């Protein structure tokens, strides 16, 4: 039984039906990668899981409890079990790196500033950054921003971490180091990771399970080996990165 | 053609209702959250510094020149009736009841309102506001409440500074430049200006502070569409707040007279 169970999830923006009945189970302690083309609604799906968007139809269960219809106040309690890394890292640009990573601790715990900074330094070290606490986000490179974003996402030791396109805009070497970081931080704590991406090499390196989102639904899912053997022409075209095939290029 | 026109009209009416509804909702949330502990004094003080202290120069400049030009113009007008001695009260009353709060309000809207809208708009389009939500922090409480409190507290202070500087400016022009007797100028001013006149202006300034901060936060908070959207948010927050300041000024004046 999955930790998160999404069933019949539908969401439309105006006349555009973005999610059209998504069914997906996320297993506890595993890395699930949701693949799909840009604009297929991967981010929309992720935002439903953490309650930034609410579904038109369908349900999301977390440990058997329906969260998709919760009030904002109740959902805030649920959100404390989550961490999220945004595509552009979404660091607060009015705060230092240390202020960013320590922000959830400052808001939700009674820790003294010195203790917060201790945790912050430790988490930054986990993502391979030392001595950057007093820098401003604008001084960081894209890869460093993602690392700081990850440190902030895991600072409260969440049970579930969501990643919105963690390698977009990074060079292949930096992407690979982010993959190592994902594996490293996930394996040690057995956290549940959900990632959305269209980066195939990255996916092959980290995924325990792959689910493919196409035209608003999860069309296929399985382990890396299962997906590599999958004969669905849409999956084949996507994994092989071909312009010709059932998926139309606009 | 008529159909297209009606559709357009309906759409803008719909948008207007949407906006009014969202602003009212934000105001309601802000009031409730402002009185819900914990109160973030640090954020409030930071915004008060930004709205208040950093607007001082603009406001002093505005007040001084307004007072000076008022003295000059009213002297020319009143001279025709031989009533030059009334220049002092004219300047002081105009400043306290109308020009102090309104001009300070408009200037600070241009300065601080646009900056607030830009800051929140940037936070919205770069997903910083979403990030805050995912960290279980209410962005209205964290971002909007301190700004609205700062607006409501600092606008009256800025208005009173504008009043004072304006009166001093008027005095300098009236007495030093135009040769009105200093004792007459001050005496007449004290005779005519009541404490209620000053308070009437301060009430208005409080409302203008609320309008500016709320409208700026609203436009920034709901900005969309990248850099262009942020620019639009800044522009429309200044236009919207300025119009609302002028309209509400008339309405409040008509009630207070």
Notable traits:
heterodimer; A: 250 residues; alpha/beta; Rossmann fold; 2 domains; six-stranded mixed sheet; four-stranded antiparallel sheet; globular; B: 257 residues; mainly alpha
Q: SSE layout and pairings?
A:
The complex is a heterodimer of chains A (250) and B (257).
Chain A: E1 4-13, E2 16-26, E3 31-35, H1 42-49, E4 57-62, E5 65-66, H2 72-79, E6 82-85, H3 97-108, H4 113-126, H5 142-153, E7 160-164, H6 172-189, E8 192-197, H7 200-206, E9 209-214, E10 217-222, H8 224-229, H9 233-240
Parallel strand pairs in A: 3-8, 3-9, 6-7, 7-8
Antiparallel strand pairs in A: 1-2, 1-4, 4-5, 9-10
Chain B: H1 2-34, H2 41-51, H3 56-79, H4 87-125, H5 128-134, H6 139-177, H7 182-192, H8 195-221, H9 226-256
Helix pairs in contact in B: 1-6, 2-6, 3-4, 3-6, 4-6, 4-7, 4-8, 4-9, 6-8, 8-9
Outline the structure in words.
The complex is a heterodimer of chains A (250) and B (257). Chain A is α/β, with parallel strands linked by helices and 250 residues long. Chain A folds into two domains: 134 residues, 3-Layer(aba) Sandwich (Rossmann fold), CATH 3.40.50.300; 69 residues, no CATH class. Chain A has nine helices and ten strands. In chain A, β9 and β10 form a beta hairpin. In chain A, α3 packs across α4, α3 runs parallel beside α5 and α4 packs across α5. The mean pLDDT of chain A is 86. With 257 residues, chain B is an all-alpha fold. Chain B has one domain. Chains A and B meet through α2, β6 and α3 of A and α4 and α5 of B.
């Amino acid at each position: 039984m999955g930790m998160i169970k999404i069933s019949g999830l539908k969401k439309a923006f105006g006349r555009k039906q973005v999610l059209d009945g998504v069914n997906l189970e996320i297993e506890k302690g595993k890395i699930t990668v949701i693949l799909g083309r840009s604009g297929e609604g991967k981010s929309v799906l992720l935002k439903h899981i953490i309650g930034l968007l609410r579904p038109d139809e369908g349900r999301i269960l977390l440990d058997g409890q329906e969260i998709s219809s919760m009030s904002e106040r109740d959902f805030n309690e649920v959100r404390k079990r989550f961490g999220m890394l945004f595509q552009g890292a979404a660091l607060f640009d009015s705060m230092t790196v240390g202020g960013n990573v320590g922000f959830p601790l400052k808001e939700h715990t009674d820790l003294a500033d010195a203790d917060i900074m201790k945790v912050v330094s430790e988490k930054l070290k986990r993502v391979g950054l030392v001595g950057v606490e007093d820098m401003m986000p604008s001084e960081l490179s894209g890869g460093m921003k993602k690392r700081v974003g990850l440190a902030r996402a895991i600072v409260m030791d969440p049970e579930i971490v969501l990643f919105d396109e963690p390698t977009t805009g990074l060079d292949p070497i930096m992407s690979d180091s982010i993959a190592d970081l994902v594996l490293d931080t996930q394996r040690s704590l057995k956290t549940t990771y959900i990632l959305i991406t269209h980066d195939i090499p990255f996916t092959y390196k980290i995924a325990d399970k792959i689910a493919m989102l196409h035209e608003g639904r999860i069309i296929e899912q399985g382990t890396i080996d299962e997906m590599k053997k999958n004969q669905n022409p849409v999956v084949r075209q996507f994994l092989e990165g071909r312009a010709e095939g059932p998926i139309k290029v606009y | 053609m008529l159909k297209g026109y009606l559709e357009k009209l309906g759409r803008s009416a719909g948008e207007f209702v949407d906006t009014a509804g969202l602003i009212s909702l934000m105001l309601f949330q802000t009031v409730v959250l402002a009185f819900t502990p914990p109160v973030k004094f640090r954020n409030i003080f930071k915004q008060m510094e930004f709205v208040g202290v950093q607007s001082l120069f603009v406001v002093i400049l505005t007040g001084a020149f307004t007072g000076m030009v008022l003295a000059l113009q009213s002297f020319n007008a009143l001279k025709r009736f031989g009533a030059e001695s009334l220049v002092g009260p004219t300047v002081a009353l105009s400043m306290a009841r109308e020009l102090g709060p309104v001009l300070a309000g408009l200037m600070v809207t241009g300065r601080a309102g646009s900056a607030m809208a830009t800051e929140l708009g940037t936070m919205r389009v770069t997903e910083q506001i979403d990030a805050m939500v995912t960290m279980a922090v209410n962005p209205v409480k964290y971002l909007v409440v301190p700004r609205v409190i700062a607006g409501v507290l600092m606008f009256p202070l800025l208005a009173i500074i504008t009043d004072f500087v304006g009166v001093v400016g008027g005095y300098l022009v009236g007495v030093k430049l135009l040769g009105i007797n200093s004792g007459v100028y001050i005496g007449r001013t004290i005779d005519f200006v009541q404490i209620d006149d000053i308070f009437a202006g301060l009430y208005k300034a409080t409302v203008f502070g609320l309008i500016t901060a709320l409208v700026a936060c609203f436009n920034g908070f709901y900005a969309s569409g990248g850099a262009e959207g942020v620019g639009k948010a800044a522009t429309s927050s200044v236009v919207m707040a300025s119009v609302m300041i002028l309209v509400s000024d008339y309405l409040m004046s008509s009630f207070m007279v």
